[in-house]
Amino acid sequence: MIWSKYSAPQAFYPLAGRLIPWFAAVAVLLMVVGLYMGFFVAPTDFQQGESYRIIFVHVPAAWMSMFLYVVMAIWAGVGMGLNARLSFMMAQAIAPTGAMFTFLALLTGAMWGKPTWGAWWVWDARLTSELILLFQYAGVMLLRTSIDDLRRADRSSAVFALVGVVNVPIIYYSVQWWNTLHQGASVSMATGSKMAATMLMAMLIMTIAFWMYSIAVILARVRCVIVERESLPAWDEKPAVIHEAVEAR
Amino acid sequence: MQDGGINCLISRSISRLTPLVFQRLVPLLSAVLGVDKRIMLQAVALSCRRGERRLFSDLNVQVERGKLLAVVGENGSGKTSLLRIFSSLLPPEDGSVRWEGEDIHQLKELYSGQLMYLGHLNGIKDDLTAVENLLSSMALAGEPCSESGAKEALEAIGLKRVVHRLPSKVLSQGQKRRVALARLWLSTRPLWLLDEPFTSLDTASTAVVTQRLHAHLQREGLVVVVTHQEIALPAERLQRLRLAG
Amino acid sequence: MSHSSMWDSISGIIRRDLLLAMRRWSDAAMSVFFLVIVVSLFPLGVGPEPAVLRTIAPGVLWVAALLTCLLSLSRVFTPDYLDGVLEQMVLVPQPLSLLVLGKVLAHWMISGLPVVLLSPLLGLQFGLEGEALGVLVLSLLLGTPTLSMIGAIGAALVLGVRGSGLLVALLVLPLYVPVLIFGAGAVTSSMAGIGGEANLSLLGACLVLSLFLAPWATAAALRIALE
User: Fold this and answer.
1) Which of A51, B245, C108, C138 is deepest in the core (most CB within 10 A)?
2) Residue A31: what are its φ and ψ, rounded to 5°?
3) Whole-number Cα distances in Å, A164 to A39, A236, B165, C176
C-alpha cells in the first residue's frame, strides 16, 4: 500500500528528502566508530603489521561495489518489467556510487599492495575482477549519457546492466581460474590470517556505515534526477509538484 | 397500491437504464467481445510522447474492413508515430491498440502475421537487384514468392524488365520506392500500414498504387495511410483522421 | 508458426547476408587484413626472440581475434537499421531472437570463420606447432561465435547513438574477458603440457550460455533502439 503510493516520483521526492538526514547521520556515526575501531582498537597483524588496516575500508568497499551492481540490475529489471519510471531513476542514481566504491576498492587495494607485495598493482584475481567491474559501471553510465532520448537511455542501460550481472560471476571465476593457471600472488587479501573479534566487528560496522552512506547519497541523487526529469515541459499536467520540488530544493 | 408502486419503480428504472445500455454498454461489450466483426483495428485512448513533446493524447479511432484510414496533419503532428504504434514498433505511452478486440501487445507475433508495414524507409538493400530485394523481403516476412511472381509485381508497378537486374543503388528515389511498394502486389495480409506511400512517385504510379489499394479494400482489407496527398478513392471507402500538431 | 517456416526465415537471412557480403567482399577482406597486420606488429614491437614470441602467442592471437570481431560489429545491424530492413525484421511473425540468431551466425561466417581458418598460419609465425596449433584453432572455433553473440548485444544497444564505434568497444570488451581468458588459457596450458581440455570445455559452456541468452538480450535491445 505504502509502496504503491510512493512509487510515483512526485510522492517519492519528499519522502526521500525526509529520510536522507537520518541515513547520513547514521553513516557518519558508524564510520567514525568503525574507523576508530579499525585503526586504533584492532590488534596489529603479526604477518602484515599495520598496513593490513586498510582492509577496513577495502573489504567493505569491494562488497558494496558488487552488491550495488546487483541492486542496480534489479532496479533495471523491475523497470523493464513494470515500466516504472522511478525504478530506472534508482538504477541511474546507483551507478555513480557503485563506481565510486569500485574505485575506492581498487585504490585501497593498491595502497595495501605496495607494502605487502612491493608493487602498486598486482594482477590478483580480486583486483582484476574489480577493475572489470569498474569498466562495466563505466559502460552503464556512458551508454546512458550517449543516448538523448530518456526512455531509450533508461531501457538500453537497463539491458546492459542485466547482461553485466550475468557476466560478473563468470568474470570472477574466470579471473580466479586464470590466476591459478598463472601462479599469481600467493598472499590474498582478507583471508588467511584468523580474524580477531574486534577486526570482524570493525569490518561489519564499516560495511553498515557504507550501506547507510550509499542509501543517503543515492536518495539525494534520485531527488536530483526527479527534479531534472519531471520539470521537463512534457510534465505540464502536474505543475504543482514541480513547484513543491523547487521549493524543497 | 404497493404493487403499482413497485411496477412504477421498475418501469422507471428500465426507462432510465435503456439509453445507458444502448449508448454505453452495447458498444463497449461489442468492442470487448469482438461482436462487431467489421471493426478490426481499434485505437483506444492512445497517447504518445516523443522525447519531451506530447504528440497526442486520448485518441480513439476505429478502422473497419474495406475501409482506408487516411491520417493527415502537419509535420511533427505525430502521424508517423501513430502508424508506428499501430505497427507495434512503438509502444504507446497510454492506451492500447486492438486487433479484433485483442490488445496487439498480447497478440505479438500473431498480430505481425496480419500486417504489412512500409515505413518511410524503403527497406531495400542497395547492393541487391530489385528482384532479389523483393524476394528476400517477402521471404523475411514469411510470405515467400517465386521469382516470376516478383517480376510480375515489379511490372505491375511500372518497373520494366531492364530495371529488374540492376543493383538498387543505381535506381532513382521513385524507382526505389516502387520496388518497396511492389510488395503490395504480393502480400496476402489483411492490414496494410503505409507511411507516405506516394512520396517521389509520378502521377501514373500514384494512380496504379491507388488502384491497388482499392482492390485490397474491395477484398475486405484494411489500410492505414499517412499522407499529405488526396487519395482518389470512393468516399465510402475513405475515413480521415486529422492530427492537430 | 510451423518449424519449417522458422527455419526458412533464419536461412533466408543467412543467405541474404552472405550474398550481401559477397557483393561487398572488400569489407570482409579488410578485417582479415587488420588481423594479419595487428598480429605482425607484435614481433616488431617485442623483438624477434622465438621463446618470447611463443609465450605471448596465445594472448596476442586471441586479443587480435577479439579486436577483429569488435571492428566488424558495426556491420551486424547498422546497415539494416539505416535502410529500414531492421524495422521489417522486427515486424516478422517469427520470434525476433531467432532472426537475431540468423544474423549473428551470418556475421560469424563472414568475420569469425576467416579468423579461425587463418589462425594456424599466424600461429606458425609465432612458432606454435603441433598440438598447440590444433588447440588454438579449436579454441577460436569455439570462442569466436561467442564473441559474435556477445558483440551483437552491444551492437544493438548502440544503434544510431552518437560515437557508437567507441562506445560499443567500451560495452563489449569487459564482457569478452572470460572468453579471452579461457581461449588463450587453452593454448597456454596445452603448450605447458597440461592439456587444454578444461579451458576448451569452459569455452564450450560460454558458447552454450551465450546461444541461449544473447539473442534474447539482443532482440530486446533492437526493439528499444527502434521505438
Assistant:
1) C108
2) -65, -45
3) 35, 36, 47, 11
Residue B144: which residues within 8 A CB-CB, separation 6 or more? B135, B138, C8, C12
Cβ atoms B180, B122 nearer than 8 A: yes
For the stretch A121-167, pLDDT in tens is: 877 777 888 999 999 999 999 999 999 888 899 999 999 999 999 88
Q: What secondary structure letter does DSSP report for A235?
A: G
DSSP collapsed to 3 states, A128-180: HHHHHHHHHHHHHHHHHHHCCCHHHHHHHHHHHHHHHHHHHHHHHHHHHHHHH
Q: Which of B54, B58, B84 to mutate to test the interface with A (most CBs of A within 10 A)?
A: B54
Query: Hey, is C1 helix, strand or coil?
Result: coil
Assess whether pLDDT exceeds 80 at residue B14.
no
Nearest to C171 by CA among C185, C152, C193: C152
- The helices-and-strands tally (H runs, E runs) of chain B is 10, 9
Selection from A190, A215, A213 nearest residue A32 by Cα: A213
CB-defined contacts B:C, below 8 A: 82
Chain A CB within 8 Å of residue C202 CB: yes
Alpha-carbon distance C74 to C166, whole Å? 11
CA separation for the pair C61, C206 (Å, rounded): 19
As a whole number, the mean pLDDT across chain B is 84
- CA C100 to CA C90: how far, in whole Å? 10
Q: How far is B139 from chain C (nearest CA, A)?
A: 7
List chain C domain ranges. 3-226
Tell me the helix, strand and coil percentages in chain B, rounded to 5. Answer: 45, 25, 30
**Is A153 in the C-facing interface, judged by CB distances under 8 Å?**
no
ipTM for this model: 0.89
Residues whose CB falls within 8 Å of the CB of residue A208, separated by 6 or more in sequence, listed in order: A30
